[in-house]
Amino acid sequence: MVKRKTDIWLYFEVLPAGSSNQKTINVRCKFCKSVHAKNATRMKSHLQQCTYVPHMIKLKFNILTPKSKGNHSKFPFETSMKKTTSAKLDNDNTDAACTSSTVSTASTSASDNIHVETPVYTKINRIQSFCDRMTHEQNNELNILLARAIYTSSAPHSITENEDWKLFFKKIRPSYTLPSRYMLSNRLLTEEYERVEVQVNDKIKQADNLSLQCDGWSNLRNESVINFIVTTPEPLFVKSVLTKAEKHTAEYITKLMVEVLEEYGPKKFFAIVTDNAKNMRKAVILEEDSDLEADQVDALYVSPSVETLTDQKDLDDSLMCEEGTTTDIT
């Protein structure tokens, strides 16, 4: 049976004998045109060392060394070619967060001394490079931040149901699931309220001196409300009362003031700021005579219409004739 010639002969051409007495047959390299003796081992060694030989041909004969005889593939170099091609594709798509690592393998045979880089990557990394994934915790964190932005900017809760906004968020983060209008109006709103409430209470608790501001007006639905702000001196909104059918009498306003003072510690308040309405001024006097002990509140009345602080006792004379009268806040 005739022995099959190795593929090395494909890259050499046999030279004709120079004379009839020439015993050695020579071959010429098709890449560098150098002449060598007809010997398969030496011819392979030349291909591995020749700088004109393409890298893929060198890689082919490196795999066909005795150490790789266990590879029974029909084309032993096919695996390496696929790995090298995959490595090139991975490197070209670094923007897609595809990561790969390389290991260097060197042949230690006597005739081979080639340094080959083979890419090694995991299946997980390849999948993640094509998929935008987000955990439940990450999605919930984005929901909280989005809800806070909606509340503080007075944006409508239906913004997350608008098709253009959906497309916008889809382009930014495809895996992000927007909260529904119901979620924004219930769970997320409750959580944000509780967070702000704790933050406000902590700031008031840490302050040594406080002042109370209150004023009343009508909201967009023409409903009467009274708002309370505590300054540390940073203004902190603490309470809003929807009075409904309740008349804004001095006694009623005094009751609301006392509730706020008792909640945050009466001794810490040194001033009460209101508008110049008669019922507000009288409410300050009534607050002094309320159930709070005399030494619990040492506050001064401040009217926006004057530039100086006026002791509450100085208001007695001006309000004596007004006792029993009530005036709604306008």
TrEMBL record:
InterPro entries hit by this protein: DUF659, RNaseH-like_sf, Znf_BED, ZnF_BED_domain_contain
UniProt key word Cytoplasm: no
Keywords recorded for this protein, A-Z: Coiled coil, Metal-binding, Nucleus, Transcription, Transcription regulation, Zinc, Zinc-finger
Name of the gene this protein is made from: LOC114341686
Coiled coil ranges: 186-213
Annotated protein name in UniProt: Uncharacterized protein LOC114341686
CC terms in the record's Gene Ontology section: nucleus
PANTHER family per the UniProt record, alphabetical: ZINC FINGER BED DOMAIN-CONTAINING PROTEIN 39 (PTHR46481:SF10), ZINC FINGER BED DOMAIN-CONTAINING PROTEIN 4 (PTHR46481)
Single GO MF annotation: DNA binding
Top-rank lineage group of the source organism: Eukaryota
Residue ranges of every copy of the BED-type domain listed in the record: 3-62
Residue ranges crossing the lipid bilayer per the database entry: none
Signal sequence segment: none
Localisation per UniProt entry: Nucleus
